[in-house]
Request: fold
Amino acid sequence: MFATDDTIVAVATPPGHGGIGVVRLSGPKAQAIAEVLLGRTRLEPRMATLATLLQTVAGDTERIDQVLATSFPGPSSYTGEDVVELSAHGSPVVLEGIVDAAMRAGARLAEPGEFTFRGFLNGRIDLVQAEAVADLVNAVTPLQARLAYDQLDGTLSTAIRAIDATLFDLIARLEASLDFPDEGYHFIDRDQAATAIGSITERLEALLSAGRRGRVIREGRQVVIVGSPNTGKSSIFNGLVGSGRAIVTNVPGTTRDLVTETIDVNGVPVRLVDTAGLREIGDAVEVEGVTRARAALTVADLALLVFDRSRPFKDDDGQLLAETSSTRRLLVVNKGDLPSAWVSDPLVAAPGRVVQTSATADGGLEPLREALAATLSVEEVSRDPVAITNLRHLDLLEQARGGLERAGPAIAAEVSEEFVVADLQEARAALEEITGRRTTDDLLRHIFDRFCIGK
Ligand SMILES: Nc1nc2c(ncn2[C@@H]2O[C@H](COP(=O)(O)OP(=O)(O)OP(=O)(O)O)[C@@H](O)[C@H]2O)c(=O)[nH]1
Ligand SMILES: [Mg+2]
Reply:
């Protein structure tokens, strides 16, 4: 996938200006290139050294910046190779200058994820941990970050390897019984094998059920705000987001496109989408806005239907109620600070929890915040059992369970051990694909494509 015998370089900190920016080098020539850049011969391993960074252009040597250089000799470095990190002032010009100088001295610009990929190839981390690095970097809620860190720390890898080891042992004993059938060896009898398969299946089940919750935390939820024009959708959106992100006016038809922000609801990242007020009239822009609003509704995990209580309930409102009857929804009755114009309660028979709000009154959105949390949050994910968050891992665990589910009855039905062993091997193959003991180039490309450059 990537060449692995050369020395790579990249800026490891985000683009833009900052207090400090870090350039990272990894590969056999990392140390030598750093020596050229710093004009000195030795960096004490794992000690930050203050040094001046030099570059030579057209025979003239100039000073680029003062940096802190740290050398991490392989194999106990992030990549498993020699690594040098240069912390400079966080200016894109300075950092790009350092990268250019490193390239002139023999380094190649790193591809996205290439540092982590080398760490994986050199056995510093397994594939689950590599994926956790990307998840940790991309986390938007503290709970997401915590679960990603747990996986990076190896909790999930350890759990999967332990199951794999038990399977390996079981297969070995079954195979031994196959190889020496006439010699009276009973390495394992069918009852013992059935019990072992049952207990491995239980361990997989525990991981799978924790994984369903974990996935919500990693993938988040999409919540779409819909309603007739001028009911206060954008005001509610702004209130929940905590900024004036969407335009609010008293003109019906203000919002015309989808406006999206992510908020944290008890650790679950929620993509909140504000939409154009649903009505049939309007110019071409508004019609397109309404089409987009309806499309957003179809992919929502939850819809907030917003009604304006200060004016009579209209046909449009009734139609929205009917058209979302099978969508998970909250019925938000807004403008509670104004006198009600509803003579009877039009929502009384409608499925969905009713929440009274006032987007303009202090604390008027609290009931909605609480209802969102109650509807969307997952039970608190404890650190044990390990919560799987990644769909790839879940799919492979399901595959592993499939193998065990075939092996269990086969052993009970006195089917030849060979077939049982084949099913168990299949389960093992799936587990090994999770941790990356077996992989394909396509899978690796897919995983490391998600990384940013410098990671
Ligand atoms: N009194 C009162 N006014 C509100 C409340 N919520 C919104 N408004 C006002 O209602 C008007 C419309 O609010 P918006 O948030 O723009 O409504 P919208 O549903 O996004 O409107 P469109 O984008 O046009 O569909 C604005 O003048 C808001 O200030 C509320 O709870 N009470
Ligand atoms: Mg609006």
User: Anything to note?
Assistant: The first strand starts at residue 8 and ends at 11. The longest helix spans residues 190-219.
